[in-house]
Amino acid sequence: xxxAGFGDYxxxxxxxxxxxxxxxxxxxxxxxxxxFLLERQTTGLYARTVGWRGILFTAWxxxxxxxxxxxxxxxxxxxxxxxxxxxxPDRRSGVLGYVTHAWNQSSIYQNVGNLFIGAGPLISxxxxxxxxxxxLVPNGQSIFGAIHGSMSSLAPGGNILAKGIVVVSAGxxxxxxxxxxxxLVDWRFWVFLYLAGCxxxxxxxxxxDLTGVWSGLAWLTGIVLAANVVLLLVGVNATAxxxxxxxxxxxxxxxxxxxxxxxxxxxxAASVVFSVYGRLRGRRSYNPIA
Length: 290
Known about the structure:
With 290 residues, this protein is mainly α. The protein has one domain (6-59, 111-274). It has eleven helices and two strands. It has helices at residues 6-50, 52-76, 108-136, 140-152, 160-178, 181-184, 187-200, 207-233, 239-243, 245-248, 250-285, and strands at residues 80-85, 98-102. A two-stranded antiparallel ribbon has the order 1-2. The chain is globular, with a radius of gyration of 22 Å.
């Protein structure tokens, strides 16, 4: 039985819940936010430069991969899929594809599933990028191996700044590895860069996806909170055990970091290409009077 006063006990319950959820899910929210911001910048660049058709240039592949992530997790959490349109662009609404689903509102399992269904594209997209990396990039295995080694070395807890430096360093090394001379002269790498750009540009959950994410997270928070109420009453603090899960998730975290690197690389490449395109178009439109 816990030997603290009631106030300390309540504080410990909430602190433990926050640490457990943050330790396991925090990294996904961080990467999801970064990917969302990069996606907004990239799609905005396409839209400003070549209009709606520019978005379709990447959406034909990225959107089906995105929607497949939703659909797979609908099935895993026993949701009923009412409609599945992997690619049906609508210029007026801006919708590129969608999955509509129904679930048993009284089922805890299915309600928690909304969290994973909403975040599903992060996983489906990262898996697709991982597969393309191994299929098309000559040094793809060594690039991912280096990322995975860095992520596996991150122990639970510890200094957040030091962890951030390790993650940034791993991302920088991955970017340099992708831009190695052997890749730049191999046609497969350029095919990979385009296909990876298509997927990375549509990887992050959309604002409508986040509705399900927050709903599922609320349910999961309630479950973890209730579990901590019981466990801490009998003197068991599960925080250390739960945060150790982050090490077992090193492979998935590595794929998310790879997704961020590829999304950034695609934004960089698109910025250069569209800058040149804009200058050429400007020259063609300039007609001096002789």
